[in-house]
Amino acid sequence: MNTTLSAPSPKTPKRRGSTRRRAPSHIPPVQSQETHDAALHAIRNFLKGRTSYDAFPVSFRLIVLDTKLNVKKALQCLLLNGVVSAPLWNSEKSKFAGMLTVLDIIHLIQYYYDTANYEAAAADVETFRLESIRDIEKSLGVATPPMLAEHPNSTLYKAARVLIQTHARRLPLLDYDTETGHELIVSVLTQYRLLKFISINCTREIQQLHLSLRKLKIGTYVSSTPPPQNPENPETQNPYYPIATATLDTPVFDVVHMFSERAISAVPIIDQDGVVVNLYETVDVITLVRLGAYQSLDLTISEALNQRSPDFPGVVICTAGDSLGTLLELIKKRRVHRLVVVEGEVSLCSDYTFTMSIITLQEEEKKGGKKGRLLGIITLSDVLRYVIGEVGIGESVEEIAALSAAPGTPLSPDVIS
To answer: d(Cα 331, Cα 196) in Å, to the nearest integer?
Structure first.
């Protein structure tokens, strides 16, 4: 019996699965209204699971002013500490007494210009106490700021809704002493800190907010249909209605009147062609007052700007085509409180790259670029109102206070600076 022996076939080794990570796809995601809305919904849910305490920086200081302090010393305290607002404390009642803001000083300036001369104003401001400021506001017929506050453990979503409904730019956070029952001022939550907290912790969602600011109707824009002309109402003759504007030749006090009457904090400065050349802010007025130059309010804007601090950060401009995501990316990188919308080319953003046309007027000048005509202005209030959603018609603060959510998982210690 003949048998044929064949060589054994070699064993084929099994291939191990690759442990290399695949490179991410460079195909940009589909940009649609649905993805944009889903990102907004995710941000709101995130805020419902975080407390106001989560937004606190690792280290911070809090300036609190006694209501018995006179205005001049209070103003010096604000300027020396580099802040524009501070909580007020009634030491007699051991109770929170509201907030002192730059707008309160603006109201005081207008009151003195309407009712007294420079000598009387300069003498009276030496003894005028903070506790009397609300009486000044009543005499001027301007709205008194609401006395609202929240607990540090309330959700950020709830705090944001209160900010939106009351049109406030900041919200005091109060706790209570368990032994005495007295109020304790813990901190103040500002619109900027809240939006920066979102921009740092919701990076993926922000990249989906690709729709333009103009399309989302964020901000106030020059109306294409101005109101009918009325000689008795100067506002109807404003070609940039409903935005308050001024020129370099406008007296400072005229702008102060705009600040007080409209409860705004900045006015775009334009030339005869409507091109934005600068921005005059309430803090600029305070700089004049700090120097004791109450009579300087008769200066022109051009003369007043020459006294502006050399470390002024600049006027931030953008185009109506910039995206909401681009704006939030900017807030993460630099302190900004408003943006002036000017004519310009649309800047596009992808899922992983933001092409930012949001710069300052000063940077544009250095590049040799052309300044743009005024189209609108965007404040942090506008941004927060859109991101959080409008408060429902007829919804009260008590109904907002009913909003609650369990705190989420702790955040990394470097989530906010």
So the answer is: 6
